[in-house]
């Protein structure tokens, strides 16, 4: 768990982060979203003291981060940035092994951890551990960057615009992979993004910032259906709001008894994808695996926020 209490940052006469208080539960993902200059990256970097706070406290579990030596704190907290930040003259195995080596892990344990993470990120260790970063695609490099951040089994992982340089198709896959792996490992994750779509896709909770002020912090559904300020409402986007709401639901949650033509969709299919199927096929209902149907009417109701 991360608990932030009245955390602020001032440079001279300029306050870049007004006092912020929020809690990120263990094993959850918090997305910090806002426009450029909103203070979200500064807030992220105050968690691991890459930026020292002007006031306030950060608690990692029951420990005050200010009482931990900065270099020790950063070894305990994974950190991944846009563009992956891999060392170009080191192999993938050497990149991933860096922090465990600093912590004095045994060579056998380090080797096992490298292979475990490469396998987890769908990179065959026999083929990839001795490759150099320039031999990978952008998406593969980003996966290795996240693997390196996770190498020492940190309880917290910080990510600053990690997928910003990826094309939309690779970015969507990287987001899915990250969410699946985070659920498997139970890591508490804080991600900075300027993209509300990404925040909704990944976040268990979303923190919206503007001009150094935390405007709203809550679950995605709450942010989408009850924006606290006009700025939050504008950031959500009026046209995009229904589709973002649909992306938060699975058709298994809104299936009703009935039958429909065609192959049945998995119950974890997003309501957004189901709506696209209905419109593409010109149908008013689709079969759901395990029995029942999802109707076009139910999808439209969910898109309005009713029952979300």
Please supply descriptive tags for the structure shown above:
single chain, 308 residues, six-stranded mixed beta sheet, 14 helices, 41% helix, globular
Report on the architecture of this protein.
There is one protein chain. By secondary structure, this protein is of the alpha/beta class. The protein contains 14 helices and 12 strands. A hairpin with a 2-residue loop joins strand 1 and strand 2.
Class from helix and strand fractions: alpha/beta
Estimate the mean pLDDT confidence. 90
Distance between the termini: 27 Å
The helix content is 40-55%
What form results from the Cα inertia axes? Answer: globular
Map the helices and strands:
Layout: E1 2-11, E2 14-24, E3 29-33, H1 40-47, E4 55-60, E5 63-64, H2 70-76, E6 77-81, H3 92-102, H4 107-120, H5 125-128, H6 138-150, E7 156-160, H7 168-185, E8 188-193, H8 196-202, E9 205-210, E10 213-218, H9 220-225, H10 230-236, H11 241-247, H12 251-254, H13 271-281, E11 285-287, E12 293-295, H14 296-303
Parallel strand pairs: 3-8, 3-9, 6-7, 7-8
Antiparallel strand pairs: 1-2, 1-4, 4-5, 9-10, 11-12
Helix pairs in contact: 3-4, 3-6, 6-7, 11-13, 13-14
Care to give the gist of this entry?
This protein is α/β, with parallel strands linked by helices. It has helices at 40-47, 70-76, 92-102, 107-120, 125-128, 138-150, 168-185, 196-202, 220-225, 230-236, 241-247, 251-254, 271-281, 296-303, and strands at 2-11, 14-24, 29-33, 55-60, 63-64, 77-81, 156-160, 188-193, 205-210, 213-218, 285-287, 293-295. The chain has a 6-stranded mixed beta sheet, with helices on both faces. A 4-stranded antiparallel beta sheet has the order 2-1-4-5, with helices on one face.
């Amino acid at each position: 768990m991360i608990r932030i209490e009245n955390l602020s940052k001032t440079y001279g006469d300029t306050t870049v982060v007004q006092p912020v208080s929020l809690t990120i539960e263990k094993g959850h993902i918090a997305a910090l979203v806002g426009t450029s200059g909103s203070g979200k990256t500064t807030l992220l970097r105050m968690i691991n003291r890459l930026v020292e706070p002007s006031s306030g406290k950060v608690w990692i579990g029951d420990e005050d981060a200010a009482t931990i030596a900065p270099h020790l704190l950063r070894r305990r907290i994974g950190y991944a940035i846009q563009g992956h930040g891999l060392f170009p003259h080191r192999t993938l195995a050497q990149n991933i092994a860096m922090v465990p080596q600093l912590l004095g892990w045994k060579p056998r344990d380090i080797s096992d951890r490298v292979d475990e993470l490469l396998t987890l990120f769908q990179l065959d260790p026999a083929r990839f551990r001795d490759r150099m970063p320039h031999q990978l695609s952008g998406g593969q490099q980003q996966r290795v960057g996240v693997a390196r951040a996770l190498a020492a089994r940190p309880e917290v992982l910080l990510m600053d615009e990690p997928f910003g340089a990826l094309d939309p198709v690779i970015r969507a896959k990287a987001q899915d992979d990250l969410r699946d792996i985070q659920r498997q490992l139970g890591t508490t994750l804080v991600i900075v993004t300027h993209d509300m779509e990404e925040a909704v896709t990944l976040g268990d909770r979303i923190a919206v910032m503007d001009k150094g002020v935390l405007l709203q912090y809550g679950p995605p559904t709450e942010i989408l259906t009850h924006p606290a300020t006009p700025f939050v409402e504008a950031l959500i986007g009026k046209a995009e709001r229904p589709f973002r709401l649909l992306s938060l639901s699975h058709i298994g949650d809104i299936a009703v008894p009935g039958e429909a033509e065609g192959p049945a969709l998995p119950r974890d299919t997003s309501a957004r994808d189901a709506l696209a199927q209905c419109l593409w096929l010109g149908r008013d209902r689709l079969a759901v695996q395990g029995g029942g149907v999802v109707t076009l009417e139910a999808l439209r109701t969910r898109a309005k926020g009713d029952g979300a």
